[in-house]
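Dear support,

We are seeing what looks like truncated structure output for some complexes. This example has two components. We would appreciate it if you could run it in full and send us the complete token output so we can diff it against ours.
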Amino acid sequence: MTNQREWPLWEVFIRSKQGLDHKHCGSLHAPDAAMAIKLARDVYTRRNEGVSIWVVPSAAISASDPDQRESFVEPMADKIYRHPTFYELPDELKHM
Amino acid sequence: MATKPEFVLRLGDNALVLGQRLAEWLGHGPALEEDIALANVSLDLIGQARLWLGYAGRLEGQGRDEDRLAMLRAQHEFRNCTLVELPNGDYAFATVRRMLFDAYQRVLLARLAQAPDAEVAAIAGKSRKEADYHWRHSADWTVRLGDGTEESHRRAQAALDQLWDYTRELFAPDEVDPDAAGLREPWLALVEPVLDEATLAVPAPSRFLSTGKRGVHSEHLGHLLAEMQILARSHPGAQW
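Here is the complete output from our reference environment:
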């Protein structure tokens, strides 16, 4: 961090209920991880959105390069045989 | 023993007046995230005030509902402790004040959650979960400010020096609340470790005793009420 007066940025992940996975919901500034979780509670869960919070320093996230989209993403678009859409799912299976 | 309406008024007025003080931080917090946190605490407190004032109105049986009690009483009719009506000052003052009050709320609500009056017990039981979080937030920031930079330490100590005497009122027993003194030990057990970690020195005791809970307030409450009540008083009975 170059500017010591600026709080670092954190990515916030919320689990909306038990059994589901944590989903990215936004980011915020906080001085450290413990405070980031407290502030995430106030910024992102005040309408009962979640039961569990993760925070990750934004600087720790490595991202794919949007300029490589052509080779990185698009080749998958026309390979429908990779989608398991030909199976019938039983009703008891949730969250698929 | 029947619950005294005056005792419930104190609980409601403490929450309402501090809730209003915290609402004044809206748009003025040191960071967006803190701004939202304080607004949440403010709303929690105003929510608690509604429950307490609603019950106080039913207990006194004069047809005053929560809105009338909050918006149409004059300064001398308010029963909040002086601690919560003091102006916000800087962030250290606002934080240390909250920490001292949140610790008090935690021990008081824990006691009231066991009260024989089922309604008092229910409101306290609901409120104490919020109070526990308020405390974690304000105690955490007290440590950060006290054990932070030279300037934040100086400001936090100055705030504590100014606020400490006002905490005596919380534990001064009277006919409305004869058990008040018994909360001081558990309150100190919460507050002292935080002050210790924050490297803040407990001020020497004085004989000063504020009297807000008896209706004798500082000059600051009237200004707070003027701002809080102007809409309701300008448009009597308005609905929104």
